Amino acid sequence: MRSGFPRCLVWLVMAMAILIPTQTSFAAAEPKTVLILHSYGQNFKPWSEYAKALRQELQQRSPWRLIIQDFSVITARAEELNPEYQFVDYLRALFVHRSPDLIVAFGAPGAAFAQTHRKELFPGVPLILAAIEERRVQSLALTENDTVVSVRQSIPVLFGNILQLLPSTKTVAVVIGDSPNERFWTLQLEKELEPLKGRVRFIFYNELSFDEILRQAASLPPNSAIFWVQPQVDAQGAVHDGDRALKELSTVANAPIFSFDDAFFTGEIVGGPMTSVSAATRITTDVALRILGGEKPAAITTPVLQYGPAKYDWRQLQRWGISESHLPPGSEIQFREATAWEKYRREIVLGAAILLIQAVLIGWLLLEHRRRHEAELQAKKQMSEIAHVTRFSMAGELTASITHELNQPLAAILINAETLELLVKSPSPDMNEIAEIVSDIRRDDQRASGVIVRLRSLLKKRPYEARNLDLNEVVGEAVQLLSGLVVAQQVELHSLLCSAPLPIEGDRVQLQQVVLNLVVNAMDAMSAVPPAERRVTVETARQSEFAEISVRDTGPGIQAEDLKKVFEPFYSTKEQGMGMGLSIARTIIDAHSGRITVHNHAGTGALFRVTLPLDRAGLLSKGAAAQAAAAQG
């Protein structure tokens, strides 16, 4: 018995411990109910925007679970009283078991309904009159369970904004409906705009159907503006909620549209000083949370909401040609289309950087190109001078050949002159024979003169001169200059020239210098070869689009390790050589866009090969000349 009783007590205590927190948690988790009363309907602006924003903020900021229920005071559209009482009975029936924790009435019609039926409609439930103009609050009917979040509409400020932006305005059309609340504001507007009637003509559309409003708005006179007050109910009793009516008006209107609340700031109105949905909602939410938290509504007072900084739609400013200089200081401009710089700043900066880098690189390359060009010109000048010196040096080696070339015609001239002298002294000189002797003297003189001209051309210092040449003629003239040297060095020189012309573009003297250098080097390379075996073959040929010169000797050839060095400056296999001949030859051929190579011949000796591009224009002209000669033949 003693052991069983404590055990039962333990179980009882545990059950109570479990039960009590559960009941407490159920009580704590019970949601709070917020009843929202809409003026006209849930989609009528501007109050619909305030209600949506309040719902969102309450759900985000409330520490309690909330049930938010919306009801529309549709009786605000007319002055019938019986439907109002039926609506009151309907609400009381809905909340017969549990009253709401808070009532929020938006707009003057909703506030008027709540204050009129306060005694019948949950008199002990806290009430917030929100988004209501302070002139529409029934202050005497407020109870200790009521508080107000009101706004102030300054009619002179709103219309003064129109005249500031459009100083030449002569007509302002006011779009407003014909419900009881709108009749109040029509009278209020007419009263407060009285001082401006001498400057501006005001047209009120409260007695028109909305279709007629659209027709008149489309044909307003110049220098007009439109002030938009949502026409809740037009003169024919048609209701206009949502954005449709404003969008239709914006489509047909021939004048800019202004309004009083940023709930309408959706792309159709210009803008200006306006009441702010976000500011009013934030204050209303603060008040609602304080009331739900237990504070008395009458103890909570909020200042009347004034206009914030004026804000304008950039698109409408552009549409109606309104200068930003007319806007009041501190104005906000929204919906501004980003400039190309704002849209593509990174791309523009990157592109500019790339262009700058490219400009620097191009400038640097141009500078380097200029420097290289100048260096090439200087190098060509220096190489030309070196080549000139080399030609003088070569002239010394060709002395015997030149002497031989000159001695032959001079000796012939001397013999013919002596013969001519004898004939002239004879009693009956043979005139035919005298004529032949004179002709021989002229021929030999021209031959000697040609040798001197070629020598002077070879030794003359002059810049590079590119001309149309026949490579066969260039090689032939160079070979003639070597005839005496060939005899002196006991070398057999063979010249095999191509039967067809080889037109090229180049400098005659420089190319002859290359040929002379190659042949002289070939003869020097055979100094150890028996005279009977000393042979140099100079040959020209055409290889596709190129003209070719080959110089082959029967000497010992070039050592394998020297083949890659023979064209380097100051490299020579001769004991007394400067090592500049082949280097200059390669420079000359490179300047002619050609190529010079060397390798050992399959038999004996070395083979130098020079290739130069053919002159296509020269080929065509020579071909046409050949065809013309064939046709004449």
Task: Give a nutshell description of this structure.
The chain is 48% helix and 16% strand. The chain has 633 residues and is α/β, with parallel strands linked by helices.
Structural description of this entry:
The protein has 633 residues and is an alpha/beta fold. The chain folds into six domains: 1-27; 31-151, 3-Layer(aba) Sandwich (Rossmann fold), CATH 3.40.50; 155-274 and 307-334, Rossmann fold; 342-375; 398-461; 464-633, Histidine kinase-like ATPase, C-terminal domain (Heat Shock Protein 90, 2-Layer Sandwich), CATH 3.30.565. The chain is built from 19 helices and 19 strands. The chain has helices at 4-28, 47-61, 82-94, 107-116, 155-165, 180-192, 210-217, 244-252, 277-292, 314-319, 340-343, 345-397, 399-425, 431-459, 471-481, 483-488, 508-525, 581-591, 616-632, and strands at 32-39, 66-73, 102-106, 127-133, 146-151, 171-175, 201-204, 224-228, 257-259, 271-272, 311-313, 332-334, 467-470, 492-496, 503-506, 535-543, 546-553, 595-600, 606-613. The protein has a five-stranded parallel β-sheet with strand order 2-1-3-4-5. A hairpin with a 2-residue loop joins strand 16 and strand 17. Helix 2 (47-61) crosses helix 9 and helix 17 runs antiparallel to helix 18 (581-591). The termini are far apart. The model is unreliable at 1-27 (pLDDT under 50).
